[in-house]
Amino acid sequence: MNRFALSVRALLAVSTAAGALAFSSGAAAQEVPAAAPGDEIVVTAQKREQNLQDVPISISVVSGDDMQAQGAASLTDYAGYIPGMQVSTGGTPGQTTVTLRGVAPLTASQTVGIYLDDAPVGSSSIYNRGGQFSLDLLPYDIERVEVLRGPQGTLYGASSIGGLVKYVTVAPSTTIFSVRAGGEVFGINGAGDLGWAGQTMFNAPLVQGKLGVTGSFAWRKTPGFVNSTNNAALKDQNAYEQIGGRFSLLWQASDRFSAKLSALYQSVDADGNGVYAADLTGKRLGDGSSYNNYVAEAFQTDLQYYAGTLDYDFGGVSATSSTTYSKRSARQLQDATYAFGVLFPLLTGGAIAPGITPFDINLDLEKWTQEVRLASASGGTFEWLVGGFYTSEKSDNTQLVRSYDMAGNAIPPLDPLATVALPAKYKEYAVFGNATLRLGERFEVTGGVRWARNEQNFRQISQGAIVPTADDPGSSEEDVFTWSVSPQFHVNENAMLYARVATGYRPGGPNVIVPNVPPSVESDTLTNYEVGFKADLAGRAVTIDVAAFYMDWKDIQVTRSFGGVAGQANGGAAVSKGVEGALTIRPATGLSLGLTASYTDATLAEDVPDISGADGDQLPGVAKFSGSARLDYHAELGGDLSGDFGVGVRHASSRLSLVESDPLTARARPYTAVDLNAALNIGEHWKVRAYARNLLDNDGEIARSTLANGLNQPSFLAITPLQPRTIGLAFDLSF
User: In 3D, which of 209, 74, 41 has the Cα closest to residue 142?
Assistant: First the structure.
């Protein structure tokens, strides 16, 4: 978790220009499951089903079954096995920032797109903190997660300049009846209680071959292990509860027409954050797993998601319509005492002593999307896809900083210290196309284009002792064009060399309404240059996927001070270059060894005074080196028994909280974690699983940041730890 410095200047900057008074962000990170020779991993990265090895994009895939087998329950649990992926977190699912290929968000809006099946989830506006509250689903009803590295602007549009994370849910079957259910208990080193989880899932054909329904429900309770040095009542304060459910109905009306309706709900309710505190020398406070908050830092988020998809095959050309509606809320309480409570004497001429300042952030988002596509049949000399996209968003961002004395009583002259509201509307229209031309058996070229226009309106409403009084509107509009081209050479039917040049953008938006501040901030853009090699060798006994990339990031959105008032602006450039790859070796039946590695050098390409950055500075939240190794083995034990065993090691080097030259930057310690999992399969119906995550209880850090007081002076360090050793036992039933 990367808590940015909280000063009077930063408060206004973040509240008006980035959508919050304070940040919580930072870093951490399963790769393609072991496939038997002859198996194929199918993805929909280019909005049509394709073999993973035929897609000219650097992609990793992790299945929901593998996540569950390995005890992974959130993005941070499996990101370490995906090349080039870093996940920052406040210690609970939902408080996450995703970074791919070193493209770290320097403001609150996202640089990695998040998709749920056919539609984006989260806000495109710069005022709803879309980059810091990423979708983090329980894995039970997930078919797979596809991670696409590099900009995906032509097919997936805005806010995917670093890449895309795509959740693909389990589709209903119209022919097979099945039920799955399971229970789990687990313990985290240092936690006062055991955690538990329960889940169930069913599929039922209502009309054989015509109508099928699937549904699921999961409930997970994770215990806390962080105490407070300032409030004895806040013991094990980072406990949280996750509840998720999904319902989907598929009508296969004919061989040509199908309709699917889906509804999904997920909530996260956390008592507090999984963060430690340390003094400025790095010595951790209290028992070493404590934070110095006075009030509970509760966090709740809820997502309702509804989707309808229609598919019709005209014979050689198929049409798809995807309509979604989502409603999302997030409620976060931060203890801003060290930032603003120390200002009480300055604001009152010494009449009022320092006090406690709880800081409430409330975010709400309603989002409609509509996409229509026409696509040719797969294969053939010329393969094409064209479509149109529309989204309409309405978001609210309200914030309240209270003023209490140390006994918890409100201080009338100062309470509230600040109130801010940032209601915003965002609309986007886009048309896009993608095509592949095959020139003989070995050479083909894929290319795409997209034109998009966004129109935005917002209002800045604020008052209080540390923010200006305002009630001002703002608006912006923008046209953006993105493109991609990728030539491919097939060495043989199982090996491909490819190159890719692709562009992407992150929307700008209206700015704060004060003198000398530009009325809007423009999109920042990124161009990716990439060469890669994919191959299945020796009858799929060996699978390789490696890529080298160079990414040119321009007009980066940053926070700038204009005569003492802060807003957003475009300034500076950065470059991210590196190599990433995955290798899977299957030397014998049931045995596989998977290796991943990523080297990412992400730096500023010029001085950026607005963020205290100098040419050559390393960007925040990026591990220069990360990698993993994983061994999996399946054995038939005789009779109705079989067993599975896996061991994995994941490593990430140190990461910065801010750009390298910023005096408040802090560097998180590297980590190396060992994970184990084993399962006994009893017949076709029963399974007993055990797992251990971070078996050796490595004390590494996902993030470390310096928190500053209201005068921008360093106060203490906030550390998001790698989750301590976690051991679990689970039982599953399926039929």
Answer: 74
CB 219 within 8 A of CB 207: no
Tokens at 447, concatenated: 């290319």
**How far is the C-alpha of 584 from the C-alpha of 83, rounded, in Å?**
13
Q: What share of the chain is helix, strand, coil (3-state, %, to 5)?
A: 5, 55, 35
CA distance 298 to 238: 9
- Give the start-end residues of each E strand in 508-564: 509-510, 520-521, 524-537, 542-554, 557-562
Q: Rounded CA gap, 217 and 94, in Å? A: 18
Residue 561 vs residue 465, higher pLDDT: 465
DSSP state of 410: B
Q: Residue 407 phi/psi, 5° resolution? A: -90, -5
The token pair that represents 9 in the structure block: 């200047």
pLDDT at 25 over 80: no
pTM of the entire predicted model: 0.91
**Rounded Cα–Cα distance for residues 125 and 110 (Å):** 9
User: What is Dmax (Cα atoms) for the chain?
Assistant: 83
- Distances 73 to 4, 169, 643 between C-alpha atoms, Å: 27, 15, 22
CA dihedral (378, 384, 390, 393) positive or negative = positive
Nearest one of 106, 153, 100, 12 to 555, comparing CA atoms: 106
> Does 183 have pLDDT greater than 90?
yes
Query: How do residues 475-495 score in pLDDT, each as one tens digit?
Result: 899 999 999 999 999 999 999
